[in-house]
Structure formats: structure tokens, C-alpha cells
Design brief:
213 residues, alpha+beta, GTP Cyclohydrolase I, domain 2, 2 domains, five-stranded mixed β-sheet, two-stranded antiparallel ribbon, 37% helix, 23% strand, elongated, disordered N terminus, binds guanosine-5'-triphosphate, binds zinc ion, EC 3.5.4.16, zinc
């Protein structure tokens, strides 16, 4: 099958989006919050700060729609398709912890053992970004990315590893600067087959500083 044919037989799925934010109401609320916190924002320099704050949160909470394009997995040797792991490492993401609405920022390593469908490579990053733009916990974000891949690709296995710095834990509160949280969700063969699990986790191994074992 040619690449062109594969394109024409790709299936596309547009994930559903949250309703558009009411930026005027958010701006009024941001002004009230700053006032309640004792911040004198009604100055030449800060007059637009409530609007900027509202816009910043609206941007961080609004997921851009995209199409989750998949292709038939029939282009390998003898039309057998690709039957080994596909892993996209180091996908930068940012989200907001649902407890403090402060950012947690890190990288995602996402992979799968293909079945009948292959995913367009850019869609790993789009799916992570789409899922991250909401009040989240790292655990739920990890699981939601994995479940979306399972639902749309019906692969033999899925693996997702996220590493992130939570600013609610590093910039305030515990002030555990440098602490990094690692979460994983493994499904199908990657969960149950020890060799496949080990191979995926090796490929998705959290980055280590030079000299750290
Ligand atoms: N499991 C999990 N916890 C998170 C995540 N993001 C933030 N938290 C935690 O949510 C908890 C909220 O705890 P609370 O005691 O209600 O909030 P708090 O008084 O501000 O707690 P401190 O952060 O310890 O000062 C904190 O322990 C946060 O570190 C996440 O993605 N997953
Ligand atoms: Zn938090």
C-alpha cells in the first residue's frame, strides 16, 4: 500500500473540548481575587493584570482541538505491519494541579505495541497536551493518555511514563526543590508480559543527571 493510500484510509477522531472560557467574568473574578489578597492592581502598570491573569489561565485550561489520525498497520515485511514497540520520548508538557491550580511541568514518554492501527507520530504530543490542559493530577493524566490510546488504536499494549516538577510542592508548601514525580500506566501486553514491560520501561527510563546511577 502506498503512503497516499494509507493517508486516504486514515481514520480521524476529534477529542471533545471543554466549553470556551468567559474571559470577562474571569477578569472580574481575577480583579476581586487580587483585591482580596491585598494586591493594589489599580495602577498604570497593573491595570491590565486581572485580564492577563484570566487570559493566562484560560490559555492553560483550553485544549486545542485536533484530529487523532491513525493508519492501517499493513506496510511492514510481507504486509505484516510493525509488530515492535513505537515509543515517543521526552514530550514536553505542562498542566495545572487541581489542588492549587499551580503548574506542574515535565516530560511524557508514550509508547504502544501496535495492533491493526498506527498513530500519526505528532498525535502523541497533541494527545498529551490536550489531556494536560485541565485541572489534573499527574496520576489521572497518565491514565487518561493511556486509555485514549487504548480506545482509539486497540493496540496490543500501551505504556505511558510521566516525569514532572510540581510547583505547588517546590515553590511553596513543602518547598521540596528538585523533587520530581514519576508516574506510569501500562496496559495489555506491556503490563502483563515481563519482557515487554521491561523493554518499554527501559526505553521510557526517566532521564538521569550525568554521573547519577
Ligand atoms: N497525588 C497527587 N497529589 C498532588 C498532585 N498535585 C498536587 N498534589 C498534592 O495535593 C495535596 C493537597 O494537600 P492539602 O493538604 O489539601 O493542601 P496543602 O495544605 O496546600 O498542602 P501542602 O502542599 O503540603 O502545603 C498536596 O500534598 C499536593 O502535593 C498530583 O498530581 N497527584
Ligand atoms: Zn498542587
Amino acid at each position: 500500500m502506498t503512503a497516499l493510500t494509507a493517508m486516504t484510509t486514515a481514520t480521524r477522531t476529534t477529542p471533545s473540548c471543554a466549553p470556551a472560557p468567559d474571559t470577562e467574568a474571569a477578569t472580574r473574578a481575577a480583579a476581586a481575587l487580587l483585591t482580596a489578597l491585598g494586591v493594589d492592581w489599580d495602577t498604570v502598570h497593573m491595570a491590565r493584570t486581572p485580564a492577563r491573569l484570566a487570559a493566562a489561565y484560560a490559555e492553560m485550561l483550553t485544549a486545542p482541538a485536533f484530529e487523532l489520525t491513525t493508519f492501517p498497520n499493513d506496510q511492514g515485511h510481507d504486509g505484516q505491519g510493525h509488530d515492535e514497540l513505537v515509543v515517543v520520548r521526552d514530550i514536553a508538557f505542562q498542566s495545572l494541579c487541581e489542588h492549587h491550580l499551580l503548574p506542574f511541568v515535565g516530560v511524557a514518554h508514550v509508547g504502544y505495541l501496535p495492533g491493526e492501527r498506527l498513530l500519526g507520530l505528532s498525535k502523541f504530543a497533541r494527545l498529551v497536551d490536550f489531556t494536560a490542559r485541565a485541572p489534573q493530577t499527574q496520576e489521572r493524566l497518565t491514565q487518561q493518555v493511556a486509555r485514549q490510546l487504548e480506545k482509539h488504536l486497540r493496540p496490543r499494549g500501551v505504556g505511558v511514563v510521566l516525569e514532572a516538577d510540581h510547583s505547588c510542592m517546590t515553590l511553596r508548601g513543602a518547598r521540596a526543590g528538585g523533587a520530581r514525580t514519576v508516574t506510569s500506566t501500562l496496559l495489555g501486553t506491556l503490563r502483563h508480559d515481563p519482557a515487554a514491560r521491561a523493554e518499554f520501561l527501559d526505553l521510557a527510563r526517566p532521564a538521569r543527571s550525568p554521573g547519577v546511577r
